[in-house]
User: Which sequence fits this backbone?
């Protein structure tokens, strides 16, 4: 970077133009993208294995949080990290509810430095709801049952945090 | 740029989560990117870049080890960076506007929120390929011009010490 007030406007080298050719066999077109979407959809079984691991990880992090309340910030962060990964992955494999739940759990934990009994209870609820979504294979928005799960969770969380 | 052939484009994925790496690699391979390398954090990315001529990097923000922001900052500004102009997409579950701004401020070309799909990833890649922005080199920033629109300015240049170069 320049170390004074100078502003240099630089035309970057165009390394891509010579590497990218148009069309031909193997071209990236809509059909190729649809093929990739279909390959990802077929990886749902892999996802279910991965998310089972994540469910174990988040449950263990929560267990550690309960056992180490004096180190709440550290263990809240562990719970957050796993929830964050689950949020990022769910929708990619057709489990949109996992993305919603992961996101809501992250938003709930975000900024907390300590965990109250109510906080612990809310996190427990999110984790058990995620376990239900996966055990019942509630892909997509989960249909009416998915809606019921989300509204039920929101109602319980509102009740215990009020 | 539509219907392009990706087989000659080398891509580096920097992501600490094996599942995300697998997801991104699978999408890239399926649409025709043949040369895809992986790194688990910023330090490993630099090691890979020393022997792999990447044309595009897809970098996660939050990683154990050296995180994505630091990795991008090093690619853009380190003396020993293999390619300061490397096109970079930052992928992250953090999609708040303030965080997107932080990513732009270290010099990413594009910012892609998780969860990703083949369509969203490819749309981001195409947008980076079509990105013809100049790079700005000043005291606090090195990277693509943070103004997305590249309209030619016909008025008097009042920014102090502005000069034009070819990278």
Assistant:
């Amino acid at each position: 970077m320049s170390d004074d007030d100078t502003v240099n406007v630089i035309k970057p080298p165009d390394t891509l133009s010579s590497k990218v050719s148009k069309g031909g066999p193997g071209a990236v077109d809509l059909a190729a993208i649809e093929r990739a979407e279909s390959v990802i959809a077929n990886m749902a079984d892999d996802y279910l294995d991965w998310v089972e691991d994540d469910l174990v990880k988040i449950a263990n992090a929560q267990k550690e949080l309960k056992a180490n309340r004096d180190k709440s910030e550290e263990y809240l962060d562990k719970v957050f990290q796993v929830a964050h990964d689950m949020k990022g992955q769910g929708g990619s494999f057709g489990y949109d509810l996992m993305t919603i739940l992961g996101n809501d759990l992250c938003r709930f934990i975000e900024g907390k430095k300590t965990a109250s009994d109510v906080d612990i209870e809310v996190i427990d609820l999110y984790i058990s709801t995620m376990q239900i979504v996966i055990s019942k294979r509630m892909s997509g928005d989960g249909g009416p049952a998915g809606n019921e799960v989300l509204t039920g969770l929101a109602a319980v969380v509102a009740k215990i945090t009020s | 740029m539509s219907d392009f052939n990706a087989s000659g484009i080398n891509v580096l994925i920097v992501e600490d989560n094996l599942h995300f790496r697998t997801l991104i690699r699978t999408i890239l391979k399926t649409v025709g990117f043949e040369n895809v390398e992986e790194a688990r954090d910023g330090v490993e990315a630099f090691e890979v870049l020393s022997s792999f001529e990447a044309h595009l990097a897809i970098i996660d923000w939050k990683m154990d080890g050296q995180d994505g922001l630091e990795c991008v900052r090093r690619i853009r500004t380190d003396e020993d960076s293999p390619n300061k102009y490397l096109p970079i997409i930052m992928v992250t579950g953090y999609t708040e506007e303030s965080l997107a701004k932080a990513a732009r401020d270290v010099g990413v070309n594009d910012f892609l929120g998780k969860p990703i799909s083949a369509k969203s990833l490819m749309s981001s890649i195409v947008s980076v390929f079509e990105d013809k922005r100049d790079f700005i080199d000043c005291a606090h920033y090195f990277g693509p011009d943070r103004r997305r629109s590249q309209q030619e300015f016909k008025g008097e240049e009042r920014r102090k010490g502005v000069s034009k170069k070819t990278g």
Notes: Strands of chain A lie at 7-11, 21-22, 27-28. The helical segments of chain A are 30-41, 44-67, 72-90, 96-109, 117-135, 143-161. Chain A touches chain B through 48 residues (CB under 8 Å).
